[in-house]
Design goal:
By secondary structure, this protein is mainly α. It contains nine helices and no strands. Helix 5 packs antiparallel against helix 6. The chain is extended and about 50 Å long.
């Protein structure tokens, strides 16, 4: 250990964000993203993958079209404004948010789905340092 002490070692260390390359020559993170394959990037791996990926968007569009045909233009516009307002209200980035208001607007509050059972935030591996996550969200990093 040098004579400056442990606190100076922490100040002199380089932040982890500086090590990550960004841009067109970014390295591939094998542990987080898996093996690369040009075929997987061009085509979906299964014919239903695109349908499943866009399921909620397609479901909302269908509901808005039905609502517009039944009640007029004002009803889907009001519901879209409510969706937008509810999506803006969030917790801090390092805390899990259940989005119960959004689930209530969509009618999913009484349904038990895959995410309710196997998406437990206490078992998440992505918990980071709160101060660094807030600085990133505010654009300070």
């Amino acid at each position: 250990m040098n004579s400056r002490g442990a606190s100076s070692l922490l100040k002199d260390s380089i932040p982890i964000t500086e090590f990550s390359a960004s841009g067109p020559f970014e390295g591939h993170d094998l542990l987080r993203r898996g093996f690369t394959s040009v075929k997987n990037e061009l085509l979906p791996s299964h014919p239903l993958e695109l349908s499943e990926k866009n399921f909620q968007l397609n479901h909302d569009k269908t509901n808005f079209d039905t609502l517009r045909n039944i009640q007029g233009l004002h009803a889907p516009l009001k519901l879209q404004m409510e969706f937008r307002a509810v999506k803006q209200v969030q917790r801090l980035p390092f805390l899990h948010s259940s989005n119960i208001a959004l689930d209530t607007l969509r009618g999913n509050d009484e349904c038990i789905s895959f995410e309710d059972i196997l998406n437990d935030p206490s078992q998440s591996e992505v918990m980071g340092e709160p101060h660094m996550m807030m600085e990133y969200k505010l654009g300070l990093l």
